């Protein structure tokens, strides 16, 4: 509506200075934003070169970047990243589908709720990673066991978020839909799920980084290919440059996943009022 | 008592199903020893002190790491909300490190501090600090401007305002962040001990599994899982009491 009001002359005498001031401000802000990251990188490099630490304790950033570059040329980087991503994302997809289904069942069916409620409320705060040796015992050391332990860990936030989201749907929405003759099925797909979707998305946004954390731990424990496996092999051979390279690689993968997820959230929830609200993510 | 029993009946049913399936040997008993055997193995390990000793060193690591992260993470978060320059420097770092899967730091903490307590405490501290920082930051940032103004008009000094207005209003979100950190501390503790350790729950699970004493391994796994659950419930109980002034 504000656009329809004619601009009052005199408030902004000339568009140009204000525009360029804003540009400079944004430039400065952007610089401040990357300044501390650059400072950290510079501090790392000088600290490593100063000889305070041995190259084993802290290899220079440049050496680590070189290692990543050579890993990329030889192709190891892509294989390991692809395998880790494959495990984490397949497990995440299972969590998303199964978690939302269980959550929906719990909020619509008394028996499902009776059965799953204590399991979720006891299982959610448990450190489920402790079951990793049990899962290995049952399913071996290949992808199936890795994906299983990730699902066990990451499904709880999705179930909990779905249950809370569906409980929180405004009664008025449901009443009016009923009043207009919506059947149960329509009510679920057209009213309840869309209205609950922001909170379900939040649950998924918790589950995704969790999947990656558990994927890395599982790979570290079982060895083999994958970013975590490569890191633990490197640390067994006291190859600390590769260990630090692994951290940077995993950090980039994690950062990209989180960013993509919040982008998807904005896209999917563009109809929701939260899309207009300023976000911190 | 009765609603409690009905509520947790499914867990009891699962336990009975476990016992029956294992006793009838529907699955191999190495993969799933009967629950009663697991309980006996657990009691035996409590008696000879194995479980208690390893458990004490695990809890010490988790407690020290979590304590440090609450102290430092909380301070950094409130400072970020209160002083603009701190925010300018720290916010990009928080944003970069927050999505880093903290388990990736396990080998590095070992390179720095070796196989003992130090590396686990460092890992738990680093992993748990950011959720606390973000909780404190969000809480302190959203402290009501009207409260800050009235404190100032009543002549409170900046430090006094920080302590009397900003910190209490940051409390709910800060406590929420600490709850996330509590769960994370158990995850990091167990995974780092499973991968490299000489004592602790994770080490015990790994060595018992390698020896083939699966009933004892199950006992330790269930103990850790229960401790994580109990810690969370205890924390909720304490915070509910702490935040009683809000309603």
Give a verbal description of the structure.
The complex is a heterodimer of chains A (281) and B (247). Chain A has helices spanning 15-50, 61-74, 76-108, 110-123, 132-139, 143-167, 171-179, 184-222, 227-236, 240-268. Chain A is an all-alpha fold. Chain A has a single domain, classed as MetI-like fold (Orthogonal Bundle), CATH 1.10.3720. Chain B is mostly helical and 247 residues long. Chain B contains ten helices and no strands. The longest helix of chain B is centred in the last third of the chain and has 38 residues, at 158-195. The two termini of chain B are 28 Å apart. Classes of the chains: A mainly alpha (281), B mainly alpha (247).
Please tag this protein with its features:
heterodimer; A: 281 residues; mainly alpha; MetI-like fold; 10 helices; flat; disordered N terminus; B: 247 residues; elongated
Summarize the structure.
The complex is a heterodimer of chains A (281) and B (247). Chain A is mainly α and 281 residues long. Chain A has ten helices and no strands.
CATH superfamily of chain A: MetI-like
- Which CATH first-tier class of chain A would you pick? Mainly Alpha
> Helix-strand pattern of chain B, N to C?
HHHHHHHHHH
Order of helix and strand elements from N to C terminus of chain A: HHHHHHHHHH
**Quantity of strands of chain A, as a count:** 0
Structure annotation, total helices of chain B:
10
| Tally of individual domains of chain A | 1
CATH H level, superfamily name of chain B: MetI-like
Question: What integer value in Å does the Rg of chain B equal?
Answer: 22 Å
Poorly predicted segments of chain B: none
Mean pLDDT over all positions of chain B = 85
Q: pLDDT below 50 for ≥5 consecutive residues: which ranges of chain A? A: 1-13
CATH class of chain B: Mainly Alpha
Percentage of residues in DSSP E strands of chain A: under 5%
Strand content of chain B: under 5%
Number of strands of chain B: 0
**Protein chains sharing the most extensive interface:** A-B, 57 and 57 residues
- Quote the CATH topology of chain B: MetI-like fold
* Distance between the amino and carboxyl termini of chain A: 28 Å
